[in-house]
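Researcher: Predict the fold of EF-hand domain-containing protein.
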Amino acid sequence: MSLKVFFLTFIILLVFSGVVNGRRFISDSGGLISDGVHSEIGRDLEILRLDRDFAGGEEESCEQSYGFLPCTKTALGNVFLILVYGYLMFLGATYLSSGSELLLEILGPGIIGGLFLPVLGALPDAMLILVSGISGSTAAAQSQVSVGMGLLAGSTVMLITIVWGTCCIVGKCDIQNSVAVDMKDTRGFSLTGSGVSTDIWTSHAATIMAASVTPFLVVQLPQLLHSTSGRHLSVLIGLIISLSLLVSYCVYQVFQPWIQSRRLAYVKHKHVISGVLKQLRMRALGRLCTDQGAPNIEVLEKLFKAIDENEDGYLSRTELKALVVGIRLEEINLHENDAIEKLMKDFDTSHDHRVETSEFIAGVTKWLTEARGSEAPSPEAGPDTMKYLDDLHEQTRREHHFLGDQSDESVETVENPRSTAIKAVLLLLLGTVIAAVFADPLVDAVNNFSSATSIPSFFISFIALPLATNSSEAVSAIIFASRKKLRSASLTFSELYGAVTMNNLLCLSVFLALVYIRGLTWDFSSEVLVILIVCVVVGVFASVRSTFPLWTSLLAFLLYPFSLGLVYVLDYKFGWS
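Model: Structure tokens for EF-hand domain-containing protein follow.
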């Protein structure tokens, strides 16, 4: 983080301190000299507070956060405070994001990438939700908790509508054969010929996001059944399910790199199988299998002798190398020696570092069986025909492409891990402190602005607060998507889906805990419906396809005003709330 941002944060805090200390000094000076003059001046200066109307209206009392932070009851004054506190929350979120990325560079994925990063990313939202209902009387908490629900719904909707659609636009590439071509953007804003593609793991992330709305459904069941007796119990059950899903999601994130590497290894293995079978079929003077599906021993023995150049009755590594030449291993980031190792591992069952005739026939038979079990695009072709093997080889190449293999990317080493770790911890601490300190004043400012303008606090928090807590994520995602590559697009959309999942699990858990412990009433049917519609629509849509033409961004944009309008109609026209 740059020194300028640190300096600006310090200046803002200093201004607040100056206002408070100046006010206290003036007030105290009147007590030191009671000549009637200084006390009069002190009282005159005392009224120069933020809770006085900017236009010169009458002063109204307000409750200062922590007893000293500025407060106001006027609309214009609260706009100023929302901007200031919102900017400080944005800084807190930025510090948390920067510190998390530094830790990721040092420690890599796994525990850090799977557990701490998602939790830290949702921390500002969780803080705001917590303070919205933790203090004051039950009646006051019930009225303020709508700020937390507005933030929860607003963050979710903003990330997978406005930010999602913007990433589609800035990351668009030409679509050819249903796949966006990296770094090729010549078709302008073609609604069907331009768009983005993501890998299979991004589709999995979208599926998880859609499933993460389950706790909302559980909590909403009593309202759906028009029952009032089981509402408190449903909140507890929803909380337990939400926490269970949160733990499961974090465990999945921790083990995902291992799962991904195993899946990539399997796809590379299938690519070698299909490539070698193609080479064998091209060299063979007959079919590799009989009409009954059994291996054609005569043809395979002739193939063995053709490959055995020194005619010693065994195939060495050098002789097997001829089978992997021409497979285009660079398409799947596989070295030639690694492909030969895969051949030896499957064929050399005696482990004597050479392949006998019987081992060669058994290995080819095994691979033909695996190829026959694969879902190739042309099932009408025989499993040992060139067309079938060509289709299978192309299928494995495409599958590898959509798995998003990053093994060819260079990994930058951290020059000074110790200082980087210290910087990361300091950024995380600073971000956490800022989020914890200024969450409560921001919620108070939103409530005061709502009272001054008669605008429901839900809509203020739905629109304004996500800009403070999610702006750093949004800007980072848009910048990364602009690289116009499948890998960058996959990471961008995966982070968006992951952020929404954490909103639906971690932030909802905090919200449900507040409702249950403080005995609040769950009365957010329209808000829950909006979250369900947006998450399910985008989640299911993104889970069944990996390429998104430009027209899909327009649909995403339209979901945002639709969500706002739906809540307004249901709450204020049909009386749901």
